[in-house]
Specification:
The protein is an alpha+beta fold. Helices cover 47% and strands 19% of the residues.
């Protein structure tokens, strides 16, 4: 089925509608001439003026009380179509400068192809352009050609607001029809009402769109403000952290210089006594040399700590991993630290897991020994009574480290009955250049680097360090994990 067309010309009545262009070759009949000269046209509606006024008032009221453009357009075409009993009524929005208009709503008396969305070319349809230009209704008559088509009459009226057109109403009658002056006046009056309603609805829509855009811009500004505030807070926090780090480094350097001078002065003092012959006998001379040696070892450990933390922070710490026997590690730790514990009258226990075969770790032996000596040394240093306990526990769980699967980990614990750490200060334990309590740390000796270095070394070997203390005077436990090279058979 072909789409019905708005009449184009008297010589081409049966042509289909082109949505991009509709031709018109007839001369527009002026309203006065149309009413005066076409007395033979058949009137399509003979309603009284009172009835017309009532219908017009009701339609105008319905249109003016809504601000929805789609509703205004549809009520207009439906109201006019029913009021004037036309075959079709169209309405098209218009903006100044447009050369084409698009059908926004349609009334059809009989089923047929819809015009909604069709495009009308104003340049080729002079009667539509005239209605927009003059703001007066224009009637166009299309006589029938040879064939089944009937004559058609089209009434076009522009909707307008403040003498500016904003739409076009087209009423189509598929027969000859004489539009009375009353009917044309009604269409003109309604077009005025519709134009005002369209203007108000458009303004309302624009104000709504503006309000939405303003809200969007406001939300964007608020988001940017929040982001700026967050960035400012982060920058302020970073500045405070930098200042704190600088303060800690200065404090650390002051403490470290003291720690370095103490063993160095001891070495110099004892060696000076030997060189000056102040020893009363060979035994005392050997004691002086032994004390100097101890001070030298202590100094070496301090220097190694400082160099290690410098390498770690510079990212230049290289750790080669390989098989490490847990029993050999614990034996060497015991040989180094048991004498220190017993010298202070502390208990010293080592608990190995019950396994059928040896426990083999994947780690760097020297670095793992360094961690153990740091942790056990701290436990002995900060414990005055009670004892030290070293234990290990097998955790069989798949672990991925450096793109390789490992069968599990060993959890090593170093527990003491020493001075402990308050809950609010525990977060400072693993901070580089930080001491939980500078006065107490200096009282027991040390730079505060041991735990920080141990944590970095353990993490570099694929493990995790944790510190547990219930508070001051309640002792502490440090645990860390080491990768299992192979899973042992646990017997208990």
């Amino acid at each position: 089925m072909t789409r019905p067309a708005i009449p184009q010309s008297s010589s081409d009545m049966s042509a289909e509608v082109d949505n991009n262009q509709i031709q018109s070759g007839l001369t527009t009949l002026k309203q006065g001439e149309q009413l005066g000269q076409k007395e033979t046209l058949v009137s399509g509606r003979n309603a009284s003026s009172e009835s017309d006024d009532a219908l017009l008032t009701e339609l105008a009221w319905n249109i003016r009380r809504t601000l929805d453009l789609d509703t205004i357009w549809q009520q207009t075409v439906d109201g006019l179509g029913v009021m004037f009993k036309v075959n079709r009524c169209l309405i098209c929005p218009y903006q100044a400068g447009n050369t084409q208009i698009t059908v926004a709503a349609e009334y059809r008396q009989n089923p047929g192809n819809a015009y909604v969305g069709a495009t009308l070319d104003l340049a080729t349809m002079s009667y539509l352009n005239q209605a927009l230009t003059t703001l007066q209704p224009v009637v166009e008559i299309f006589p029938a050609n040879d064939g089944p088509e009937q004559p058609q009459t089209v009434l076009a009226a522009a909707t307008f607001y403040q003498d500016q057109p904003n739409g076009l109403i087209v009423l189509q009658q598929d027969q000859s029809r004489q539009w009375s002056s009353t009917e044309i006046a009604l269409v003109s009056e309604l077009a005025d009402q519709v134009g005002t309603a369209i203007a108000h609805a458009t303004l309302f829509g624009e104000s709504q769109a503006l309000a939405i855009e303003l809200q969007r811009v406001n939300d964007t500004l608020l988001k940017k403000h929040r982001e700026f505030e967050e960035a400012r807070k982060q920058a302020e926090e970073a500045r405070k952290q930098a200042e704190e780090a600088s303060r800690l480094k200065s404090e650390f350097l002051a403490n470290t210089s003291h720690e370095l001078r103490t063993p160095l002065n001891g070495m110099i003092g004892f060696l000076k006594l030997v060189l000056d012959g102040m020893a009363d006998n060979p035994k005392e001379q050997e004691d002086f040399i032994q004390e100097a040696h101890k001070s030298a070892l202590h100094l070496l450990n301090l220097i190694n700590d400082v160099l290690d933390i410098a390498k770690i922070e510079a990212g230049k710490m290289q750790i080669d991993m390989g098989p490490v026997k847990l029993k050999e590690l614990f034996t060497e730790v015991e040989n180094f630290t048991r004498p220190q514990a017993e010298q202070k009258g502390l208990g010293f226990d080592i608990l190995m897991p019950a396994t059928r075969d040896q426990i083999i770790l994947n780690a760097n032996y020297q670095r793992l020994l360094q961690v153990m000596l740091n942790l056990v040394g701290n436990a002995i240093k900060f414990t005055q009574e009670g004892g030290i306990s070293i234990s290990a526990e097998v955790k069989s769980q798949k672990v991925v480290f450096q793109d390789q699967d490992w069968p599990g980990v060993i959890k090593i614990s170093v527990a003491d009955t020493g001075i402990g750490v308050s809950l609010e200060k525990q977060d400072r334990l693993f901070q580089t250049f930080s001491q939980v309590d500078g006065e107490r740390t200096r009282q027991y000796g040390g730079t505060g680097l041991g735990l920080a270095i141990s944590q970095k070394l353990v993490e570099a070997m694929g493990g995790v360090v944790q510190f547990i203390s219930m508070g001051e005077g309640l002792g502490s436990t440090v645990t860390f994990t080491v990768l299992l090279y192979q899973e042992p058979v646990v017997t208990a």
